Amino acid sequence: MSSNAEPAAATSASRTYTWPEPDEAQAALRGLASLEAIRDGLAPGAPIMYTLGWTVTAAERGRVELCLEPQRFHLNPHRVHGGVIATLLDSATACAVISTLSDNETSTTLELKTNFLRAVSLELDAVRCIGTVVHRGSRVAVSEATLLDPAGKPLARASATSLIMGRNPEPDAHNEADS
User: CA 136, CA 163: separation in Å to the nearest integer?
Assistant: First the structure.
């Protein structure tokens, strides 16, 4: 049966946010120092932190902890969307690897395997995501992350493989002219 009736008017919500851009000194931070500065509020984080609303709450070599308070804009439609959870897990695994990098290294995720164990809902207060490095080689790192509820029960897990690369030197006027 089809109906020509108009759907009921829905209420709407909106969200506007901004993110800070790093100054020159903040942008020069690398590895663990960059994560410590973000944790301590001395440098801005990546824009995705502001998009999803998570924070860095702990950082040490090979280990990071991120915190997220589930919000309505994370839902699909009644539980936190798996993509939000996967992004948080990816960020935790990547930050754990970043905490081991030297000033002349960078990394990128090659593979992310996720397991969703329990639903994440608005009833939960902040959830914690702990990322750790399992193996750090010269070109490849393996890391894992676990998303925990306030009681410490696992909600999701991920394992990741990251490629470690040399950082490209800053372009100079001569190189830019040749491009």
Answer: 10
Which domains are delineated in the chain? 26-169 (3.10.129.10)
Over residues 3-61, the pLDDT tens digits come to 566 667 678 999 999 999 999 999 999 999 999 999 999 999 999 999 999 999 999 99
Paired tokens of 47? 């824009």
| pTM score, whole prediction | 0.87
* 77 in Cβ contact with 88 (< 8 Å): no
Alpha-carbon distance of 68 to 125, in angstroms, equals: 9
Q: Which residues pair with 66 in a beta bridge?
A: 56, 129
Write the pLDDT tens digit of every residue in 54-72. 999 999 999 999 999 999 9
What does the alpha-carbon distance between residue 23 and residue 29 come to, in Å, rounded to a whole number? 10
